[in-house]
Amino acid sequence: MHYLLTEEQKMIVDICRQIVDERIKPVRAELDEKAEFPWEIIKEIAKSDLFRLFIPEEYEGMGTGIFEVCLATEELSRGDLSVATSFAASGLGLIPINAVGNDEQKKRFLPRLASGEKLAAFGLTEAEAGSDVGAIRTTAVKDGDYYILNGTKQWITNGGEADIYTIFAMTNPEKGARGASAIIVEKGTPGFEFGKKEDKMGIRASATRELIFTDCRVPAENLLGREGMGFIIAMKTFNESRPAVGAQAVGVAQGALEEALEYSKVRKQFGAPISSFQAIQHMLADMATSVEAARSLVYYTARVIDSEDKNASRLSAMSKLFASDMAMKVTTDAVQILAGYGYMKEYPVEKMMRDAKITQIYEGTNQIQRNVIALDMIKRGVIQAPRKQVFK
Amino acid sequence: MKIAVCIKQVPGTTDIKIDPETNTLVRQGIENIINPFDSYAVEEGVRIKEGLDADDKYKGESEVIAVTMGPPQAEEMLKEAVASGVDRIVLLSDRAFAGADTWATSTTLAMAVDKLEDVKLVIFGKQTLDGDTGQVGPEFAQRMNIPFIGYVSEIMGISAKKIKVKRLAEDRYEIFEIRLPAAISVIKDINTPRVPSLRGKMKAKSAEVLVWTASELGADKDEVGLSGSYTQVVKIFTPKMVYDVSMIEGTPEEQVEELFKNLKNLNIVS
User: Fold this and answer.
1) Sequential pLDDT tens for chain B (270 residues)
2) Which residue of B195, B199, B202 is in closest CB contact with A22?
3) What is the secondary structure of chain B as a DSSP string?
């Protein structure tokens, strides 16, 4: 297949493939079983400069775009979605710093994240607040040169493993969503502790934890943008990060399709490989077609965002929605093709199916994505205002 | 500290063919790879440099140079070494180098390392996948008149003057501390070569390959290539494994007796 990749983009894909083949595939089942954070692999990813893809050159990044982030995320997801989630979650945590941080904040935090020496995390979700940003209970009260944080964040990816956290807290609770602010909190700050580590259905090797703030004093200079900008920062971040969730979905589906195809060629029933049966052939053809369709939407969306189109929220939501629903279907079909073996932990497809489910849920459930798409369409019409030239 | 790593491009296959006229390896149509043992040598060279760079005393003083003798196509492999962290790459390429045995090869490499000046450590893979002799490293050290430790599995320490290494012997590990300059060969256990970095790959793309010919090395034609070789490959073939099986029958005692007699006849036991 041709994806019109540049030489540099092909290098990114090659590096990720080597990491998947040499470092991820041999250990992914064990990491899943033990629910162990893949630090060794993350370090290898860091040494390969892949975290630099999120960051501009002046802060020691590669100065590439969302498209390159999607390529890397997709390839890593082909190997293991836990690894890809841990990788992408650091990106999610740093997008707000990159998007609205001042130069001093960027200089302080981005180079360490570019080298992968430290990981970032994004702290929005709470027990009663996810997509409903206005329902956040965590507060940040100004006290001289500090904000005092109180509250508990839930299901935070990279929680405990990351060093730099972008936390959403209420600076003005009366104002609802307009009273939320984003502030950077570093691991080790007194009053910042980690709660229980979640036992999950899938992406078990990724870390998902509570963040507990008890009179935690954070320097006021860590505030991102201005007070009350939290909701806008979160939405802006999601617009840029959702295609990467789409890329995760494409990657895990691609991995499952490859396993299913290989298996169908060696598994014999009634004296012939099952790939010679039309029932299996049609399943494989449908799986491959839907993977390509989702990939095209994800790549297109990423390229639109990189062209600095300001109205990418609809496409961004579409790419996440379509790709994740596709991934759930394709991984389920892969288990079906492997049948009894597919249901066993000896083969990787049952894990891929468990892993794929999260892509329909996190960074806004697929129901929320449909809201975003519909509301944007009602506001702007089916055909959006003309975009800038997409392909350079 | 200047560190040289001697690497070789080998055919990525075990089905090796020899040109009957020149008695040299047929390289056409075979994908070439870096000799797997040499990739550990490259990685170790880069790790030593990184370790020295992390020490304030030696910071910024080290350089890793990969050297190979081979045809122009070997450039590709040298560039991959740059992606893995090597600073400079040298290709020794000349018609006159063709047909070299291990002695002529080590002579040529020694001339190159001499020309690089002030190299403190030279690292080899323990042997190549094609030639399989494991002789070039020790012969090189002999020519340079420097110490050589083969089969190194761990670098335990390095300073401006000395290196401490652990090596695998047949039934034990041995630890040596030797003065620099020195040469070592490394085995698989020593490290896991890194996945090349994106910045490394970009750098590799435009990396400059230093090409040195026989005259640039100041080599006498009789010292290098086929004419500088004491040995010549006449024929390479995969040996046929012949198994001669004889079944021994009878009671267990009789079988043991018969087996013992057979082994005695073969002078295996007495």
Assistant:
1) 999 999 998 887 666 667 767 666 676 667 788 888 999 999 999 999 999 999 888 888 899 999 999 999 899 899 999 999 999 999 999 998 988 889 999 999 999 999 999 999 999 999 887 777 889 999 999 999 999 999 999 999 999 899 999 998 888 999 999 999 999 999 999 999 999 999 999 999 999 999 999 999 988 888 888 888 988 877 766 677 788 888 899 999 999 999 999 999 988 887
2) B195
3) -EEEEE--EEESSS---B-TTT-SB--TTS-EEE-HHHHHHHHHHHHHHHHHHTSTTTTT--EEEEEEES-GGGHHHHHHHHHTT-SEEEEE--GGGTT--HHHHHHHHHHHHHHH-SEEEEEEES--SSS----HHHHHHHHHT--EEEEEEEEEEE-SSEEEEEEE-SSSEEEEEEESSEEEEE-GGG--PPPPPHHHHHHHHTPPEEEE-HHHHT--TTTSTGGG-S-------PPPP--------SSHHHHHHHHHHHHHHTTS--
A47 and B195 within 8 Å at the Cβ level: the answer is yes
- Residue ranges of chain A assigned to CATH 2.40.110.10: 121-228
First to last CA, chain B: 57
pLDDT score recorded for residue A1: 66
The residues with which A141 forms a beta bridge, in sequence order, are A148
Whole-angstrom distance between the N-terminal and C-terminal Cα of chain A? 20
Burial A2-22 (b: 16+ CB within 10 A, else e): eeeeeeebebbbebbebbbee
User: According to CATH, where is 1.10.540.10 located in chain A?
Assistant: 7-119
Q: Which residues of chain A approach chain B closer than 8 Å at the C-beta?
A: 7-8, 11-12, 14-15, 18-19, 22-23, 44, 47-50, 52-53, 62
A99: left (phi over 0), alpha (psi -120 to 50) or beta: alpha
The answer to whether the beta carbons of residues A180 and A230 sit under 8 Å apart is: yes
Residue type, B106: S
Residues of chain B positioned with their CB less than 8 A from the CB of A47: 194-195, 197
Q: Which fold has domain A7-119?
A: Butyryl-Coa Dehydrogenase, subunit A; domain 1 (1.10.540)
CATH code for residues A231-380: 1.20.140.10
Angle between helices A230-266 and A66-79 (to 10 degrees): 40
CATH number of A121-228: 2.40.110.10
Strands B32-34 and B9-11: antiparallel
Query: Is B2-228 in CATH node 1.20.140.10?
Result: no
Token digits for B49?
């440099």
**Neighbouring C-beta atoms of residue A173, cutoff 10 Å:** 14
Domain with CATH 1.20.140.10 in chain A: 231-380
Q: Which of A5, A11, A51 to mutate to test the interface with B (most CBs of B within 10 A)?
A: A11
Q: Which residues contact A127 (CB under 8 A, 6 or more apart)?
A: A152, A154
Taking the domains of chain B in order of start, what are their residue ranges? 2-228
Give me the pLDDT at residue B241, please.
Answer: 76
Specify whether the CB–CB gap between A152 and A178 falls below 8 A.
no
Cβ contact B217:B115 at 8 Å: yes
Burial of A186 (0-12, 13-18, 19+ CB in 10 A): middle
Among candidate residues B110, B109, B182, B190, the one with its CA nearest the CA of residue B148? B182
Contact A332, A355 (CB under 8 A): no
- ipTM value of the model? 0.86
Is A363 considered catalytic here? yes
